[in-house]
Amino acid sequence: MNDTTDQATAATDADLDVETAGETARAVIDNVQRVIVGNDEVIEHLVTALLGGGHVLLEDVPGVGKTMLARSIAESFDCSFSRVQFTPDLLPADITGANVYDQKDGEFEFRPGPVFANVVLGDEINRAPPKTQAALLEAMEEEQVSVDGRTRAVPDPFVVIATQNSVERERTYELPAAELDRFMLKLRLGYPSEDEETTVIDRAVGGHAIDDIEPVARAEDLRAARAATARIEVGDAVQSYVTRLASHTREHAQLGASPRGSIALVRAAQGRALLDSRSYVVPDDVQAAAPVVLPHRMRAEPGGADAAELVARALEAVPVEG
Asked: Is the domain of 82 the same as that of 12?
């Protein structure tokens, strides 16, 4: 780390003020942008999810940089990282770990799976059957894993960044609603512009920027930044606004946003406030986060507007002041 980075990541487990925590978050964003061309808004959303203690689902066509984005985030933190390549034959124990009999000692020994890392990349999560996908549910919600009747805590901080193939539907499995609801955000990258793609090609000649990326923050920094994010004030008016947005989606969709979705929206808004080094949430934070926090939790009426459009309509229809 250089001197500037050291100043931005000098946090420990002690309390961080909002300004210092914001500097840490912005240092991570700048670092990721060295690898990922364009998609600045997507990168910001992903970092707000990390600050809010949430998990992220990246869905798009193959080859647009989903895995590279997840790796760039992970490489920006000096913490434990694991990658799980989801396949149809992957078993739950391949994720959580299992008790293995040690013939030498005559005892069973627990061998932890890749879920026991600070940052877990679940690559093409929808290629594995629902039973295997469900192995992540307990860890994502309760930050613990139960194997053979014993519960073990996952590392702190803990975040799952999953990618999803949106093209080969006949060779994939749908993510259950309960699992989708545990992802704070669902993001799409999209194709780059011609200029951005030219830059991507130029950076890839002779190597890739991901090979040169260095950590700019530590696990302790992320813990402290999350604590600072949680302390950001969410006034009664903003809480009421979030509640009314969620209620609007329930009135106009087959399945509206859940209370967990409302909480996720508040936490994502707190993360956005921290990026601006602001100690309180404003309605603009909520409005910026809602399009990536709410739609994947919803199910539109058959033949009606899709979930993203329903959220856009809710933002137009629901007044900030109740």
From this structure: yes
pTM for this model (two decimals) = 0.88
If asked whether residues 224 and 247 sit together in one domain, one would say no
User: At 199, which CATH number?
Assistant: 3.40.50.300
Question: Smallest Cα–Cα separation from 232: which of 277, 182, 198, 171?
Answer: 277
Do 177 and 282 reside in the same domain of the chain? Answer: no
| Average confidence (pLDDT) per 10 residues, the chain, 322 residues | 44 71 94 90 95 93 84 89 91 91 80 93 89 86 88 93 78 82 92 86 77 89 95 97 96 92 97 96 97 94 86 95 74
Q: What is the largest CA-CA distance in the chain?
A: 68
The residue whose two tokens read 């813990």 is 223
What CA–CA distance (Å, rounded) separates 55 from 120?
Answer: 10
Whether the CB-CB separation of 273 and 281 falls below 8 Å is answered with: yes
Burial of 205 (0-12, 13-18, 19+ CB in 10 A): exposed
- Residue 82 is part of which domain span? 3-231
Question: 80: helix, coil or strand?
Answer: coil
- Give yes or no: residues 89 and 182 share one domain: yes
Q: Characterise 38 by phi-psi region: left (phi > 0), alpha (psi -120 to 50), beta (else).
A: left
- Whether residue 252 contacts residue 237, with contact meaning beta carbons closer than 8 Å, is answered with no
